[in-house]
Specification:
The protein is an alpha/beta fold and 150 residues long. The chain is built from two helices and seven strands, in the order H-E-E-H-E-E-E-E-E.
């Protein structure tokens, strides 16, 4: 729903925004010495940056995410970047039958083909501390009465 006085972004406008973001990122990579040697690929889809590839260490990944976040028009960053040769552990919260990426660990309150573990997301998760690199929580907060325990 769009608030009164605001206009939803059209598909054409979003496509143009994605083209601008891709050009701005390519320009950054060409001119920022700190990005030399990174093999991170960035694809923009409706203002969301999708990152894949690899970096040598967590500091490089933080730098890439920080620089992408500074680009005007970026609405979010989804990250599947390997650090130091290790693929990230990604948990898809409330995934249902469809995960964001097939290799993610899927958690949902109901069993389904894409769910690896059934868990009530209104409480604590059945995961060890520091065992996950990235959480995806797409369209779940609105289903929780109180999301703070999560």
């Amino acid at each position: 729903m769009v608030a009164m006085g605001q206009t939803a972004l059209s598909g054409e406008r979003l496509r143009q925004t994605d083209e601008f973001l891709a050009e701005a990122w390519a320009d950054l990579v060409r001119h920022d010495e700190r990005l030399r040697g990174t093999t991170v690929e960035v694809r923009f889809d409706r203002g969301v940056a999708h990152l894949t590839g690899a970096v040598a260490d967590p500091a490089q990944l933080r730098l890439v995410r920080e620089l992408i976040g500074r680009l005007s028009g970026v609405l979010g960053v989804w990250c599947r970047v390997a650090v130091g040769g290790r693929a990230p552990v990604v948990v898809d919260l409330g995934c249902g039958a469809t995960k964001q990426w097939p290799g993610n660990l899927g958690l949902d309150i109901y069993p389904a083909p894409g769910v690896n573990a059934v868990a009530n997301l209104a409480g604590s998760l059945p995961l060890r501390d520091d065992s996950v690199d990235v959480f995806f929580a797409v369209h779940i907060v609105e289903h929780l009465i109180d999301f703070l325990p999560l």
